[in-house]
Amino acid sequence: MTDESDWEKLPVEQKCEHKVWKARLQGYEDALKLFQRIDDDKSPEWGKFLGLIKNFVKESNAVAQLRSLEAALAFIEKAHVATRTVGEVVSGVVNKVFNQPKARAKELGSDICLMYIEIEKADVVQEELIKGLDNKNPKIVLACVEVIRRALSEFGLKNFSVKPIVKLLPKLFESREKAVRDEAKLLAVEIYKWIRDALRPSLQNINALQLKELEEEWAKVPQGAPRQNRFLRSQQELREQQQVEAAGDEDDNETEDLPQQVDSYEFLDPVEILSKLPKDFYEKIEAKKWQERKEALEALEPLAKNPKLEQGDYGDLVRALKKVIGKDSNVLLVALAAKCVAALASGLRKKFGIYAGQVVPTILEKFKEKKALVVQALQEAIDAVFLSTTLQNVTEDVLAVMDNKNPSVKQQASLFLARSIRVTSPAVVPKPLVKSFCAAALKQVNDSAPEVRDAAFDVLATLMTVAGEKAVNPFLADLDKTKLDKIKELADKVEVIGGKKKAAPTQSSASTVQPAPEAPPPAQPKKTPLPKTTNVATKKTKAKAAAGARPPAGKGKNVAEAKEVLETELSMEVCEEKAAAVLPSSCVQQLDSSNWKERLAGMEEFLQTVEKIDRSEMPCQALVRMLSRKPGWKETNFQVMQLKLQVVAVVAQRGNFSTTSASAVLEGLVDKVGDIKCGGKAKEALTAIGEACTLPWTAEQVVSIAFTQKNPKIQAETLSWLANAIKEFGFSGMNVKAFISHVKTGLKATNPAIRTAAISLLGVMYLYMGSPLRMFFEDEKAALVTQIDAEFQKMQGQAPPAPTRGSAKGREGQVEGEEAEKQDEEEDDVADMLPRTDISDKITGEMVENIGDKNWKVRKEGLDQVAAVISEAKLIQPTVGELPNALKGRLNDSNKILVQQTLSILQQMAVAMGPGIQQHIKPLGIPVITVLGDSKNMVRAAALATLKAWVEQTGMKKWLEGEELSEELRKENPFLRQELLGWLAENLATLRSVPADALLCVGPLYACLEDRNADVRKKAQDALPVFMTHLGFDKMKKAAGKLKPASKDQVLVLLEKARSIMPAKPTASGPTSKPAASGPPASGPTAKLEPKDPAKSSPAATAQLDSETADKCPPKNTKPTEEAKKGKSGVVLKKPSGKGKDEEDHSGPIFTLIPNKKELRVKEEKSLKILKWNFGSPQDEYVEQLKAQMVPCVVKWLQEELFHQDFHHHIKAIAAMIERLEADNDAIVSCLDLILKWFTLRFFDTNTSVLMKALEFLKLLFLSLSEQKYHLSDLEASSFIPYLILKMGESKDVVRKDARAILGMLCKVYPSSKIFPYVMDGTKSKNSKQRAECLEELGCLIELCGVSVCQPTAAKALKSIAVHIGDRDASVRNAALKTIVVVYNISGEQVYKLIGNLPDKDMSMLEERIKRSGKDSAPSLTDKAPSTSLLCKPTVDKPTKLGLLQTQSALVQATHQEFSLDLPEDLESNLSVLKELPELEDCNLDNLEPLDVPEFKTNSRFFAPVYNIDADPAVRINMLLSKIAFEDIHTSMDALIQMTKEFGKKGCSEVVVKTVNPFLNAALFQLRLIHSSHLANRRVSRRDLSKLYCCITTSFSSVFESEVLAQQASSGALKDLIEGMLTVLSDKRVNELSDGAEVIRSVNKLMGLLLLKADQTNVLGALLVLLQDALQNNTISEFSDLVMKCIWRVTRFLPDIIATLNLDRILLDIHNFMAVYTKEKLRQFPNSLPQRTLKTLIITLCRLTGPKIMEHLTLVQDEFSTLETTLKNVLKSQGLMPAKENVISGTSCNPEKQQEHHGLKVSGSGVNLEKRIVLQEHHGLTKNMRLEEADKPSSHTSGPASSVNIDNKLPFLLQDNQALACSQNPATSVSKSTATLDDIKRRLQLLKQGR
Fold first, then answer.
1. Phi, psi of 358, deg, nearest 5
2. What digits encode the pLDDT tens for the residues 484-541?
3. 172 within 8 A of 139, measured Cβ to Cβ
4. 226 contacts 191 by C-beta, under 8 angstroms
5. Quick check: 991 and 1066 in contact, CB under 8 A?
6. Which end of the chain has fewer CB atoms surrounding its CB within 10 Å, N or C?
7. Contact 1739/1867 with Cβ under 8 angstroms?
8. Ramachandran area for residue 1594 (φ above 0: left; ψ -120 to 50: alpha; else beta)
9. SS3 1151
10. Residue 309 main-chain phi, psi, to 5 deg
11. CB-hemisphere CA count at 13 Å for 1279?
12. What pTM was computed for the model?
């Protein structure tokens, strides 16, 4: 009892889990009562049982089981959270309930399953029940079948899918258990009720007896369609509706309820047949004996007749069958091959569409066979093939054969066309197709063969039925009444498939086979499913057509044609009678009077009468023919002639004016077009006739007449009238081919007025036709093409005006959808107008074989031939023979270059073929999408560009039809998925609607949401809102119901998120509209302000223009897809400005800082994942790649400006970048590589304004980078410098000057030695100006940096320079000679050895120039503008305009600011500016007071300012700093002495502290000036140079003696300072000075002070950068040796300064060094000193910091960095060392491990360590080590002299040699500074003994 009392007190949920079955029983009962009491389905009580329900159905106790199932059923019925339990609960029911003996338990289990279906979990329930069918327990199988049958019977086919069940039925019929077989039979009967005959094919293979029993049961099934009697929770409205219907008339319901048509194809398993073909199939089918060919076809036929075939590559098979059909002489084999084609098409259905284009033309041509057997087989084949494609795709092929000479071909083609139209929805029969079909059929209506005529009538009747009379009648206006009545009679009998009428078979169509939209199953060929076109739609179409109401103006482009009046030509007598009936008799008599006044009076009366006559009573032809009575159109009086012309205009406007009437007057009107007085009236009359008879007809007649005239003015004015008329009427229906011919004639005219008018007409045509128009004029003369391009450029960006006359003038009143439809139609019209070439005969079999050849070179030749054919044809027809299949094979080519070439050809085909390319979407477009899965970035980019070109021509909807896109998305390729999803998201956003097949992509889209690849998931999430826009949230949610529970929950969350950000559908007038060729113009107050013509403004006004355009014309904020949507018109639709995106604020940041993005781009380019920026001229793929890379880094509006086609937008973009240069400084640096690449594109522009603006920005940019001490990367340099050097050959001086200036600035952010090779390459140019400028620049580089700057070696470089001495161009020769002379001034006679042998003539020129250079004055700084820019370090504080740096006002203002050294290019000229007095202003001279005029010292080299410089310390110091950089030595020394005093004062002021870096820059500039100029100039006193050296070093010492001042020195300044000091030490010319030794001692002292007092982080970083630059030639020079010794010196200080170091920066510098000089590179040096120096530094840092050093790698972003690996190895080696005192250093050390790390393993005896010392002796590293003063003799005299010199010059570094000897313990120094080499060896011996 105690136990029972315990569990009774438990909560209900705990009772249900109790071990005692009674407790559980009580719990189930209590739970059932609780569930019945809860009314709220979202009550929290439900959550308590959420995890228990699965245990309810698994109850093992038979007594408690019933209660548990009842409770579970109640929970599922009422709880909102029950849907979460479906999988586990149903699985429990199947496995634990269905095997129970109690019928009640099984019933409850079935109810639970059905309840889950009711709460919309049918898919999961079905999945679990299907699993139960595989159970070994027959009871479970039986119960599952029964539940499936109940579910289908109660919920119906829509809610419970039978597709997976049908496939399992044969297996159930084979069960051993009779009960299972009986239940399976009941299930089959139930399924038959819902899908009828679609079930038969799946059960054809069961036992014959069972099948017979089934047939008997099926025969008993009532004919009416079954209805569901149980509804889902979401179908309550349907339930109520069905109840209402049930209460109505039962008879009505019976007539309306029809069995749902289901296609059996869906239930069939696909059969793979390609592998089952005989191995010799392809050999036999091409055999010579017809019996062997027959064997092959007979083997194929049974395989092909499988009702459903598996998708595969049937290309070879189809081509073989096509060959048999087209070329086999045996008609039996032709018929057999046709049957095989029909079977393949029926088995593959839509998947056969990619092969339809191959077989349709062949079948149509083969209809010439007259045997009925063959014809019937061909009909069945072509009908089956048509169902796999679309009407548009076969149109070209059908129309091509309808002109065939063979009547059988024409007849069968027409009959096929009629059958195809009958199964086509009216929505997919566009008006252009109706026009083409009618035109082709009308030609055959009068054919001599009656069967051809009957077939043509059949086509017209079918068109009238499907498309409607309104669409067809305008084209039947010329038919007589008898034929028209016959067409209408046939139209009433035509049966549209799915309609209710039955066509009476005619004689011509009696033998034809009506195709069905879907291929019927073999068992029931007569049962055809309903097509998409229903009878309701047909009725609506006919109702509209029969309404008879006149359509509104502008609706339908052929309204004018429909109104055209047909009139026969009347005789003159009849005309006079009709005219006399309406005109006064006096008027008629006066018309031919000889008195002009009477004729004038008669014409006035004529005009007044005509204006009053009604339209119906006006005899137009008679009236206008009366005007031609003598004198007729030769009237000499202009007043009479003007009235005549006016009468013609009035008659045309007010009467039913026909083309017959127009023909009577056009010649006279054209003759008067060129008349000065009457030309205007003549043009008005022509316009009126154009409105009455349509402009296309009128224009063609007028232009033809005009070009028969000899008067050039008539031709010019006619073309001018036509240009204006096109703007008024629009371009629809124009005969483009004829106009192009006339325009070409006009362009060849000698009269300039005709040529001008022709070019203007071309400009108007360009508005409507776009870029394809230019193709027809590429063969014209170059000058003419230039004029045409200029005219097209004017029209660029403009939209064609809205038509104001003709059939389109009412277009403004159209609704949005109609407007969009009209635009699409007009674009199709323009595309149809373009004359296209048929290249099918040029695509030869040999060419196709070459494309498929095994040798890649032959394949490439074939592709080149194809590209040449397309390029030559320009515009081509869609018929291209076997080319699509050949190109498709190359898309999978192993050679990626050929893949890219194929994509380029496909892109070329899209442009050349136009909209006709849409028939190749399936065979070629889908394979292009497959290429998106390629691992190469370049290939994917090319594929995207190809898709973009195709979509521009085809639109996006065609791509979404069918299953192909969804199949591509299912492929688990991350590249394919992310690229395809991005492409879909971009293009779907521009559509107003999508086909129903787009829903097929949703499933794969959900799979992408769970892809392993993060990029795929991101793209899928971005695509969700776009899909939801078109499909709707409900459909997307329903599709998610098929997912697994875990996946579904995640997807639903994403769907809700996407729902909140779902964009609105684009409208016709929005950015998704078609190209502007058919869009409305931006006119009136909302029109866009056009910028001024840059050609009319000077370059000087560019800045002003920029500011004006920036203020008045904000950059157009168009959509990113706008350029992609530029269609054939080539222009973009202008949007009204108004209040919208065009006025959004552009004041924010324009560049985005993305960490590590630049490094990622560098890595991708190095690994060739993207295109390397290297080209002769920019190609589209480079521009597209740059555009894609800029998307995340640049704001949207700026990117649109950067890549706009109009150069004005480029200027605006550059102006914006100049404005934000300082504000977005960090972001600009982060995307500097992209910015420089974009400017290289501008270097190829021909517009000077853009070029000058670009150069202006670049100067400001590099000034800013120089201030920041930024170092340009190699990638940035290689993608910019070569293209900058191209501009050094520009014809304009100002451009060359700016390019030189920028190159000079580059030397401050990139090593000169690396710039040198680029400039050397520039000397190889064919441009003489570029060669000369590059040679001069080389001279400047050598003069500044010495001969060591020459790369790869001085000898090779100078030999290449010396070659130009013999150049034909004088400027090149002079530049080469000047450069060699510069080398001579530095190296002396050694220059002859370096340049090698020269021709005698060249050598004599060089010697003469060297002699003359000796007589001339020493080269001054002012003679070399570029060299000045190389020397100086501009540090302008806030450069906003470059002009401020070059004006007097800027120089005066600079004296008031903090000093910034900015020496202009021409120092001498700028110094003279300071001597000029300012301009005087007008003022009142009456009240002048006396002024103190300062003394003007004309002899001084520097002009003292007019203000008191002592008043302001900052001004005084700035003036001193400016003097330091003067060329005059004495002025510079005075300034240096004064600055030394300033630095020596105690408690330096803030002004002095801030001037440390400017001072260092100025002094270093003077130091460089000494080496580049003064030392080479013998006129400069050597003593003065020594004093100047001492002044410089003393002033430097004064800075570094103060700890406060020393810490102010930046890393860049320290680098330059150390470089300068070490250069002094290594310059032999310094030793030649009288006080050279003193100079070297002072430099030694300074270096010791610098290394001790300056910021050690900056010092170490500067040394590493210097070492990196010094080791470029893979040799260890004297300079690099000095740098390494400095590093050793700093390494000794590390134990004392480690706490003050910024280890993050130091490790970054080490990483950069190791990235340039890898272990392999370091091993290439003559000795291992660089490698050991670096290792010693690393080991020291590791020993001092320990494992914590790994935490300082924050700035090293390279995941492949070798530094991290090295640090780990070092730490590991040290971690293994025993804690033992080192004999030498007194610290813990393991020499063996340490030396092993350095590459020298120390043995137990220490022998190898001694070898290392000997090795160091060999390299002179430990020789001549001196511990006394530099002038004391050394105890070791052996070794190279250079070692002696170095040690003499660097006594402060001598102790570092000891550190070299003991590098096994680099963290410590030798304890005694007086140790010798013997001491070290002795201590090493002690170390060995201790070990």
1. -80, -40
2. 888 888 888 877 764 434 333 333 333 333 443 333 333 333 333 333 333 333 333 3
3. no
4. no
5. yes
6. N
7. yes
8. alpha
9. strand
10. -110, 145
11. 24
12. 0.39
